[in-house]
Amino acid sequence: MPPGITLAAAGPELSAANTGFLLICSALVMLMTPGLAFFYGGMVRVKSTLNMLMMSFISLGIVTVLWVLYGFSVAFGTDHGGLLAWNSDYVGLGGIGLTELWDGYTIPVYVFAVFQLMFAVLTPALISGALADRVKFGAWALFVALWATVVYFPVAHWVWGTGGWAFELGVIDFAGGTAVHINAGAAALGVILVIGKRVGFKKDPMRPHSLPLVMLGAGLLWFGWFGFNAGSWLGNDDGVGALMFLNTQVATAAAMLAWLAYEKLRHGACTTLGAASGAVAGLVAITPSGGSCSPLGALAIGAVAGVLCAMAVGLKFKLGYDDSLDVIGVHLVGGIAGSLLVGLFATGGGQSEAQGLLYGGGFGQLGKQAAGVGAVLLYSFVASAVLALLIDRAIGMRVSEDEEISGIDQVQHAETAYDFSGAGGGTAPRTTAAPPGASHGPAAARTPDNRPASASGNESASGNEKVDA
User: Fold this and answer.
1) What is the pLDDT of residue 12?
2) Kind of pairing, strands 465-466 and 84-86?
3) CB 3.0–4.6 Å: which of 29, 259, 282, 440 could bond 118 by disulfide?
4) Per the domain annotation, does 171 fall within a domain?
5) Please, how many CA atoms are within 13 Å of residue 50, restricted to the half-sphere of its CB?
6) Is residue 416 one of the residues assigned to a domain?
7) Looking at the 3D structure of the chain, how many domains does it have?
8) Tens-place pLDDT, residues 53-104
9) Where in the numbering of this chain does the Ammonium transporter AmtB-like domain appear (predicted)?
10) Quick check: is 6 in a domain?
């Protein structure tokens, strides 16, 4: 080599292993949306089951189309002022080479785009659990399209996009504590304050119609969450992805046990609904924090989230907002807890060198986390409430009271979830109302108005129908 001439540093090369890994993770995250549908679908009354399933499934269609047309460009294009992004090559995903690598990583742009698409699909579906039993399906579909455009795509850029203000500030959000869970939870609160309570809220029993479906959904969510969390390190071979995988399991287990312990002390029993809800609370809390803490830190984060979320689900009775399936109590509170606890448990040896208060880092990182939490919460809450109000004024968000009482499945979808017709064409015995005073779970678990409720605090779901086997 002639004197004075040096070779340029070699850039990253496409990795078949990382590409395959991220495609598998993308499929796992996609599975979370049907898992969420089952989780929510089991918690509502029989007459709302199909509507709840469809409110999740429709997101797979709407958000996918918007992501291709402009969503990826708004979220991950060239930054403009830290708030929005845009790249004309990403519009329609047509100006991207098949082997073009994503921003210094070893995976193609298309792989990153499809992985992030699955996050964008799941997030508005999370909101649907707060709105069970009472929202027109067409109005919900319109809300999903507008909310993804106005709220999710910009917030994803703030948190994860190069140049996004939260990203540049140093807010740590490994896989979506702010962009996904706080975003969805704050949106849920904004919308339910606009559309109001269900008919019979705090008066009629609204218990889960199928706890096996709830457990199936929780299991699918737990399984898919490994792709959600570990995949977010994009295949880097430095051990952080493996740490996140381990911490996901550890925090989820700790949160489930903590929720059940709280139930046992408060209500006298450990319920299946509590186990499922506690697991989801742990998954939510470790999502922003798992890449920056140790496994012991993950244990603490999971335990704290399990207890806080178990306590938070009862706030709707005291404050009077009708969060049907506890999206606020689990996703908003769990997301806030996990995001803020980064400021305590970040070791400086994981995804970044930032250290939390318990590791000698002072209050600096905690302040950054609080800024990210507050900004996303406020923006999503206000924007979501405005969108819901505009849709309500334009086409109406709610079904009529008579339609809500008779059953939203039949009204909105012309179907019912279960066919009890006999094999010979006869009709099976009609379902019967639960006897007065019957409860789901221990007798000690009651709502503030002395009405039976599940011990987990989630009164939401199920009807007073009892299906004959």
Assistant:
1) 86
2) unpaired
3) 29
4) yes
5) 15
6) no
7) 1
8) 999 999 999 999 999 999 999 999 999 999 999 999 999 998 899 999 999 8
9) 21-418
10) no
